[in-house]
Amino acid sequence: MGENRRRASTHRSRGQQDNRRPGRQAQRRTPADAVRRVAFDVLRAVESRDAYANLLLPRMLREREMSGRDAALATELTYGTLRGLGTYDAILNLCSDRPVDRIDPPLRDLLRLGTHQLLRTRIPSHAAVSTSVDLVRSVAGPGQAKFANAVLRKVATRDLPEWLVIVAPENDELGRLAVTHSHPKWIVAALRDAVGAEEIEDLLAADNERPGVTLVARPGRTTVEDLIGLGAGPAAYSPFAAYLPEGDPGELSLVRQGHAGVQDEGSQLVALALAEAPLEGRDERWLDLCAGPGGKAGVLGAIADERGPRLLACDAQPHRAELITRAVSAHAGVGVVDGTRPAWRPGAFDRVLVDVPCSGLGALRRRPESRWRRTPETVAGLGPLQRDLLTTALDSVRPGGVVAYVTCSPHLAETGAVVDDVLSRRDDVQRLDAVDVLTGIAPTLTGLGTGPYAQFWPHRHGTDAMFLALLRRL
After folding, report:
1. In order of start, what are the domains of the chain with their CATH numbers?
2. Is 154 annotated among the ligand-binding residues?
3. In what residue span(s) does the SAM-dependent MTase RsmB/NOP-type domain sit (predicted)?
């Protein structure tokens, strides 16, 4: 387990690269307040208009011509603050004369940003306080700057372990884990139910690690060897994956041309598992039922191009269908289709992937703000749609064909419970052992569970927490 986490931490993106090989270039340094202003502006957008940091931050860095170490610092400040928000709010509640939820939202974000610099970066305390106060002064005025100075100086009196002893509840284990690892308490409870009490702390800690950049070499278009030739390193499990140790993957020519992409290794493997699962009879038509934005469709389409089947990739949203078009070759069909009202006859396909909309609790490393947006009601509200989509997928595959039910969540209500509920009302479906199929692809892959379902974990595999069930229609 520890080795996987060390491996995952060695391929982090830290700088700029050219078309040939990742590497650092001489960069014009950006003023410190401009770097922090980028982080603050993203934090404000995330809270005020539900923006996604992973989409907004790269665009803002390009617009403000920020790269190299400055971009890396802005990225760390943004994501680090979002990950630690729950912990920082608990500390700020003790350092402020008013509750955090009563502080003006822009000022609150600036205090969180300053607290992250003080407690989880190597920035000297005096610099973290002074730059934060200067930013408060420019955003909120001199009066608020005095308040921020007083609060942040109190934060600076202790380091993070000392603060955690004070703010973490003593007689409430879930509460202690929630504050220590900055997750809502209900998510801690759900993840503990899924992974077990022995591993829950490791899982929560892994959620707060910055994920590495994993590339996918789309079959028939490029190879892992080509990516390694550009400076990437070999991956642990997927035969199509390579780890980028540093740099911007968008600067690689193979990525810009669509021959390679950025895709989590677990995401690659669940798509590959569908292609490798044993079926009976013909193998000519494949369907990706909820394909946007196109990552898994890109893998399936490339494999289909090599083997001969035709892939149809669909999504209910036109803008997501547009993204699919960019990810697949011209041989694949792309359509705007509501998966709960299919536009094809029953039994039309040999293999069907249904990657259902979910809470996204398996990707909290990449989308840390999701933990603060989701609620138990979010999970409950998605359940009927997940069941409807799985039913459509099973109806769309012919007898002898295979369905892969996939979700980027380990929450039991979104994984095995959905599959078991749908199958309890049918007598024409057989569960295949997804663990056997995956270990046939990657023999060193362990820790997926006892089958027939497979669950990836960040702390075990260095991947998102992808769930996979493989189902054969009888």
Report:
1. 263-473 (3.40.50.150)
2. no
3. 186-474
